[in-house]
Amino acid sequence: MRKIYIFDTTLRDGEQSPGVNLNTQEKVEIALQLERLGVDRIEAGFPAASPGDLAAVNAVARAVKNATVIGLARSREQDIDAVREAVKGAQDPGIHLFLATSPIHRKHKLKMEKEQVLETADRMIRYAKQYFDKIEFSPEDAGRTELDFLCEVTELAVKAGATVVNIPDTVGYLTPYEYGNIFKTLKEKVAGIENIQLSAHCHDDLGMATANALAAILNGADQIEGTINGIGERAGNTAIEEVALALHTRAEYFNAKTALNLKEIAKTSRLVSKLTGMVVPGNKAIVGANAFAHESGIHQDGMLKEKTTYEIISPETIGLKDSKLVLGKHSGRHAFREKLVDLGYDKLTEEQVNAAFGKFKDVADRKKNVSDEDIRALLEEKIIETPEVFALEHLVVSFDSHGTPSASVKLKTAQGIKQHTAEGNGSVDSIYHAIDAISGEVVELDDYTIKSVTDGTDALGEVHVVLKQGEVTAQGRGVSTDILEASARAYVDALNRLIDKRNAPTRNRRDNVTLI
Ligand code: KIV
Ligand code: ZN
User: How far is the CA of 174 from the centre of ligand 2 (A)?
Assistant: First the structure.
């Protein structure tokens, strides 16, 4: 298999992401992690940009031992000198020189004719050659450069001493077919091309950076440039992890591989995200939080039967522990049962699982992700099986900060559904007055506590109440995403227990302990 070199520009093009500004220490930390990941080349910065950049590149150059450390330079002597200074102390130093070649850049930015571009590139590569063995030359905006002129520039760069010619699709304009064709043409037409490496550098303006990089590989590119998490100027660069995993997963198709230690990918991604402050979107390929999460019932069922049904990459490959079965409203009974077993509820009967699944679906309808804690709370909602004298059917609460709260409650009773509307000092008070009116029971609220089971505004709320009637006390528990509903459920639960206790005081409740 052909080796594809990985040129990481997280610290240069990646740092050009709007709002990102890494200090020297952060750059060194990322560089050392990139080294553990096994990238071949690290572009550490643009030394001529500022003394701070130069110092940071120098710190990286001194810290890194196994990768080539490269500094970026415009085609100017003072930029090349700045890189010389910056990479002093590197085990394996290199320079990346660039000069725009496209008609738009020649006319508006450089104000140069083709001949001047050729002459400048030749002179600057030769100047750099006095100091560097490893010289990468980039015809900036190669993607929009006339193909025959690009061939001419490439041939000149090879003759002048470049060891790598990089083909930047600077503005992310090309399609995979067009980009691949540039590599094919260069390979066919440029004399001496076999003596250098060809590199691909893509931007993601049209969402094609990874596809373009892969097309370049299929057409002979030896090196891919990119960043971790695909960060970079505007829409970013090719995401290195995407290319690496595409080559790994489709090895037979590409017949090419990187030397990356894939198990370091997740860690590297987290570090870059943390230090740059650029949050990785949940649906980002390979490193997004949802990349190995399955929510739909059909997918979860398939995953549990055989992971390869819905997973082409195992999370362990990139250093993650396991795929996540996220329980939500699309989850099915199979995944739910697995989760119960996972949580230690492995002795439930079919009937109990069904009852729990019903409750879970209820919560999942109102809450995006149902966490393990939510499920535990649901299972433990009813610790002692009690005959249901009353069951909450419906609840409407009206609250006005300038008026009196009222609640309309419907309870299922032995005589059918009964409804009552009552007012109170607060919403909970009005609910409890309405329930009292329906039940006809005279009870005292001895205790009321509320807590959140999980985090976030859509967390499950758990209410505990203690009711008292003469000598008899009973506690009840209610869980819901709505604290008023949880309050009503807890009260009805306590009422049922209180009635049961009053009617059968000697029953040994421990025998009836169940989880749902
Ligand atoms: O995108 C680009 O053209 C660049 C060059 C400096 C190579 O980043
Ligand atoms: Zn770029």
Answer: 14
Distance 140 CA to ligand 1 centre (A): 6
Atom of ligand 1 nearest to the CA of 237: 1
Distance (angstroms) between ligand 2 centre and the Cα of 234 equals 10
Residue 450 pairs with which residues in a beta bridge?
463
Strand-pair partners of 136:
96, 164
Terminal alpha carbon distance of the chain: 57
CA geometry: angle 22, 271, 267, nearest 5 deg? 155
List the structure tokens of 140: 């900036």
Nearest of 294, 282, 482, 459 to residue 371 by alpha carbon: 459
| Residues in contact with ligand 1 (CB, 6 Å cut-off) | 13, 98, 138, 140, 168, 170, 201, 203
Angle between helices 114-129 and 77-86 (to 10 degrees): 30
Which of 138, 199, 204, 212 to mutate for ligand 1's pocket (most ligand atoms within 8 Å of CB)?
A: 138
- Name which residue sits closest to atom 2 of ligand 1, judged by CA: 170
Residues 6+ apart with CB under 8 A from 183: 167, 198, 200, 215, 216, 219, 220, 221
- Residue nearest atom 8 in ligand 1 by C-alpha distance: 13
Nearest CA to ligand 1 atom 5: 140
Q: Residue 223: which of 9, 448, 394 has the closest Cα?
A: 9
Q: Which of 188-192, 208-212, 241-245, 387-391 has the lowest mean pLDDT?
A: 387-391
Q: Could you report the per-residue pLDDT of 194-234, keeping only the tens digit for each? A: 999 999 999 999 999 999 999 999 999 999 999 999 999 99
d(CA 65, CA 260) in angstroms, rounded, equals: 16
Q: Which residues contact residue 297 at a Cβ distance below 8 angstroms, ignoring those fewer than 6 apart?
A: 330, 331, 332, 333, 334, 335
Model pTM? 0.71
CB distance 219 to 184 below 8 Å: yes
Cβ neighbours around 505 below 10 Å, total: 9
**Alpha carbon of 271 to ligand 1 centroid (Å):** 24
